[in-house]
Design brief:
The protein is α+β, with helices and mostly antiparallel strands and about 500 residues long. Helices cover about 35% and strands about 25% of the residues. The protein folds into two domains: about 160 residues, OB fold (Dihydrolipoamide Acetyltransferase, E2P) (Beta Barrel), CATH 2.40.50.140; about 260 residues, Bira Bifunctional Protein, Domain 2 (BirA Bifunctional Protein, domain 2), CATH 3.30.930. It has 15 helices and 21 strands. The two termini are about 25 Å apart.
Amino acid sequence: MWEPNDLEQQRLDKLNRIRERGIDPYPKRVDRTHTIAEAIAVFEAAEEAAGDETPEAAPVVVCGRITSHRPQGKSSWAHIEDGSGRVQVWMKKDNIGDESQDLFNDEIDLFDFIQVSGTMMRTRRGEITVLANEFAPISKTLSPLPVIKERRLDDGSVERYGGFTDPEERYRQRYADLAVNPDVREVFLARAKTISAIRRFLDEEGFLEVETPILQPIYGGAAARPFVTHHNQLKQDLYLRISFELYLKRLLVGMYDAVYEIGRDFRNEGVSRKHNPEFTQVEWYKAYIDYNEVMNITERMVAYAGEQVTGSPVITFQGHKVDLTPPWKRITLRDAIIENTGIDYTEHTDAASLTAVMKEKGKHPSPDSTWGKLVDSLLGTDVEPGLIQPTFITDYPRDISPLAKMKDDDPAHVERFEFFIAGLEMGNAFSELNDPIDQEQRFIDMGRLYGEDSEESHPVDEDYLRAMRYGMPPSGGFGMGVDRLVMLLTDRPNIREVLLYPHLRNRDE
């Protein structure tokens, strides 16, 4: 049960006084004729048409949240914001009358929403302003938002500061964070543009957007631990998907040549600045191409998204200038690890041998790691942080890539790549394995190698194998975390900054 503090009680008292005036502080509808941006645009067009003359006064009705509130007796000032912009409002008692002026001065608070009817003008200081002839409260704010302060700079512009400073409170109260921090709102506008750009690119490339099940009877397509739930009527355990992969590849069997999905995946794993249990992924699969062509499409897609969102394929991330323009660097995993560590993992083909040489080099491998996990740890600790410019790392060991085709000249490696930008792993792709007999044996081998409880183990999906036996064309597939791309394009080092509602621990933990 809400127990108002002193400030909230003062606002409740004002709410009651507004009602006593016969005014509904939460009306059912408003009479808005223009967004704030539209109202400003109308006035600027009128100014341009008028030239040196005074522009014709255009009537407008605008609505928004009060972000500054300066009652000054017979002439009061405010700024209001909506989703499109911000404008100054001038309340003159001669225009709006004594009763409305008193209402504004006495009962309206910072962060309330109001409707203002009036005409557009420009003040002597040059600021576009709504000269009000009527106003009405449309939503009383009972809990004040964190205060934002303003100061006018020498060039006449207004700088805003203050508001939320504690990151965790910002994440827990994202609604308040968005309300007081325009730069945070810009991040999520950029996120929407990023997803739109990816969708537009793939649509223009001839891909078909589809939707696959979120609740799955068998999970697969990635090395991750799933979330488990239960369907009561069917008496069946189900899994929140960890990947779209196996369902999308079934559609290639069904004679779609190119498909994609943008949606949520769920992985029951650690939370960090790069990981959230629920995240957005784009995956696509295209028939009759291999991983080389997947690389070509990938670098074009990411560069396109960067240009659409930021205006340029050259971006800045945490002080690094990054050029997304194709072509990107391509280097094998083996060569990248040799360059950075001096270790050739192909000369140490079991876990014991590779562990020994890693210790000789001063590293601290986990004693329970398989050979494949040791190789992956060398990539993560010694190679990945230095991959600032976009780079494809290619040709991964078969043991850690159960869904990819083997290389013709090297059965120990597969046609797989991951790509990295600004020290972040961004995505994963293969020449897709389409031999059902080989795929079944890979599932069995992975189960034997890692055990049922390992995140690396892939359950044997008999329906997927049946689909493959009907014939799946040679194809290339791709998966990328959209959240990380948004991090990159908005220069945010923590994934929580680009998720509207990131997962957080309970407050008492």
